[in-house]
Amino acid sequence: MTTGGSRRIGVVYDVDGVLRIAPLRRQWGRLQALVAHGSRDRRSLLGMQRVLGVLADGEHADVYFLTALPDKMARPLRVALRHDQYPGGTLLMAGRSLISGWLFGAGLERKRTTLDRLIAADPETSWVLVGDDAGHDPQLFADVARDHPGRVAAIAMRRLLEVEDASTHTDGDGPPIVRAPNGEELLPGLREVLGLDEAGRGSRVDDWFLTESQRGNPATRLRPWTEGNEVQLRVHGSAYYRILAARLATTGPGDQVLFLGWRGDGDQQLGDDGPTVSQALADAARCGARVCGLLWRSHLSMFGYHVTQNRRLAADLRAVGAEVLLDQRIRPLGSHHQKLVVIRHDTDHPRDQGSADDVAYVGGIDLVLGARDDIVHRGDPQSTAAADAYDRDPRHDAQLELRGPVVRDLHEVFVERWVDPTPLVRLPWHVVPDLVHRLPQRASRLPAPTPDPPATGTCAVQVLRTYPRRTPPLPYAPFGERSVARAFIKALGRARRLVYVEDQYLWSADVARVFAAALRRAPELHLVAVVPRPHHDAGPNPAMIGQAEAMAMVHEAGGDRVQILDVENDEASPVYVHAKVCVIDDVWATVGSNNFNTRSWTHDSELVCAVLDAERDGRAPADPGGLGDGARGFARRLRLELMREHLGLGSDDDPILDPDAAAELVRTRARALDDWHAAGAVGERPPGRLRRHTPVHEQVEITLRRRWITGPAYRMVLDPDGRPLRARLQRTY
């Protein structure tokens, strides 16, 4: 690779600080970082793979991985680097002894000799030296630069021991030294000192989507992504339920109706005049369709969970020949949170093609009481009269309707869980009640998924999931899958202008760290997040600690470029935001079941669809991010539809097409509505429904007890971490 001049660049990365088992000196640095919390705690390996990828410029630069490990450890080291998504390169094994030479950090002299030999062997190359400050990299790299003047183009140092903002400086005549807490924040400084052009190819799907290896789960049958799909947004439960009822009414002999859910309320009406969830699914079964479902069994009812409702729906459908299993194959304190309905039709076409009428639905809307709200947001008409309704508030939510080849992949998501031979429940207090209620303990055999439906649209869709690593292992994800987290990390690495989020929680500091890094890297980036309004009369609770850390972290990173808001209806009643939506630069968009917390990114089962539309929206700005991607039809329509609703814009897109203008209009209208309320709600109500979300740290004092006792309890119970220990230590996914 050559930089802005004509220099040929090579990269040396000291990987002893990123291995799963590190030398003791580096382990101490990791432990220091692991126990630290607060808005300025940004230490992680986030983005280090991308740093090397940018420097390597595809496959044209020389990348060397330096380690004090001996030669006999070369093979496991290659496996570890490949598993952690580092680009290919040459190993520089500088060690002799595994114990005295590596574990106790005695490899400085041999690393120095190895680097001297490498630099002498290639006099035409300038070198970028990459490492961290927890070992001897600062001394090693400074000595190499001093003794080889002009041969080191830059030093990149990830800060692990101290948390400070990214900085670039030069010691005397030496090379520029770029320091930052993580790879995402290292990149801007490295691009500047090396003269690298930030604009990329912009038209490749894998610039945004995870590749097959980046998913990190070779056991799955899912493809990296599919193209030629039609994707439509269904905002609000009433719109989704109406369409779902109509689609279920078209099923007949040989068709399949497959669904996954967190909860199922059989008495929830899909329309004002019905049918109910039970009736719609039972009618499909009576007409000859194969109806199969997997619902989370849930924890015990005495703790406020909904096993009774799920059991009732399973019994209703079993009576008409359908099959619903209650699935408790989870980690302790976990849940199955995926929301999916797949409808596949029998077809007279050759068996190498599915039906053009096949359809799937993915998002945040379950088949539950309380979800059938509409754009007016007065709540589900049925929930106010239902004795067991768990949420009576007006609710804002979103679902995707998908057609095309992606339906086959979503079918596979269902089948992988359905055919898992692990018993559905194992604990005696689960097994015995299920036997008493005659719930099925094993799944019957399903026909093999039919082939892809024909291409019908312009969208590439990537199916993303979270599965934890658990015992016994999941056959389709034996080491877990965290492709939801990995996809957000990759996409946020390209964010430049606007990240629009709707989310139920936004609680976790580990997730907020990813957004904060993007805000620090891209000085023009806005973050607009719409979340539920807190219940001020509920008093302090453990979740407030996690939310305080997360929101303080993004505010500290982005300042007034960060807006966190909640929603009320025209009668000033809070609207519960249950949607899980993200749009980045009007290019990449996701809708799914995931929330932005550690639980959803690592611990529970989740299902998300990321969409990259080949159709361009040519309205200015035609390329908001400036990277050549262009505004994409679906992502821009999704953002505009949601923002129009919240801002009271009707059908007028013009005020919010530009990211800066959209962020400013959000700020202006939210301030006007806040001021109107503060003045006693006198006079005409300002347009829009957005209010400034009162930061949690303004409601609750973060005392030592809450930080060191309540906070850890929150992270263990309410927002647990399902990652392996090495990923937690490295703060990666």
TrEMBL record:
<keyword id="KW-0443">Lipid metabolism</keyword>
<protein>
    <submittedName>
        <fullName>Phosphatase domain-containing protein</fullName>
    </submittedName>
</protein>
<dbReference type="Pfam" id="PF09949">
    <property type="entry name" value="APP1_cat"/>
</dbReference>
<feature type="domain" description="PLD phosphodiesterase">
    <location>
        <begin position="573"/>
        <end position="600"/>
    </location>
</feature>
<dbReference type="InterPro" id="IPR019236">
    <property type="entry name" value="APP1_cat"/>
</dbReference>
<dbReference type="InterPro" id="IPR001736">
    <property type="entry name" value="PLipase_D/transphosphatidylase"/>
</dbReference>
<dbReference type="InterPro" id="IPR025202">
    <property type="entry name" value="PLD-like_dom"/>
</dbReference>
<dbReference type="InterPro" id="IPR015679">
    <property type="entry name" value="PLipase_D_fam"/>
</dbReference>
<keyword id="KW-0677">Repeat</keyword>
<dbReference type="Pfam" id="PF13091">
    <property type="entry name" value="PLDc_2"/>
</dbReference>
<keyword id="KW-0378">Hydrolase</keyword>
